[in-house]
Amino acid sequence: MYNKENMQDMQKRVDQYISQFEEGYFSPLSMLARFTEEIGELAREVNHHYGEKPKKKSEDDNTIEAELGDILFVMICFANSQNISLSDAFAKTMNKIETRDKDRWTRIVNQEDNDE
């Protein structure tokens, strides 16, 4: 089993891995293509699991979890190549969403809220 890592640790781990190779990070356009490819593979797995298209017997076993892991790896590579902290990016996005969309959806009412 793997140790759970925070995003900074994950970014550092990916950077240490990529830094072993002369080629380094792919260009932004190549990484975007890889990202798109991985999203397509995720879509295929979701379709096999939830859709009407069963997997062929000749197709490799794969999981939604594995495809999400692949997408996360490519996203971290992209962020690292652009010197972007995903922790900071996530915090900014959550602040935006929690502010902009705070009244957009129907909230779940807790039993404790009804008792007041």
TrEMBL record:
Keywords: Hydrolase. The keyword Hydrolase applies. GO terms for molecular function: hydrolase activity. Residues 26-105 form the NTP pyrophosphohydrolase MazG-like domain. It holds the Pfam family MazG. It comes from the Bacteria. PANTHER family: NUCLEOTIDE PYROPHOSPHOHYDROLASE. This is Nucleotide pyrophosphohydrolase. It comes from Gracilibacillus thailandensis. The lineage of its organism: Bacteria, Bacillati, Bacillota, Bacilli, Bacillales.
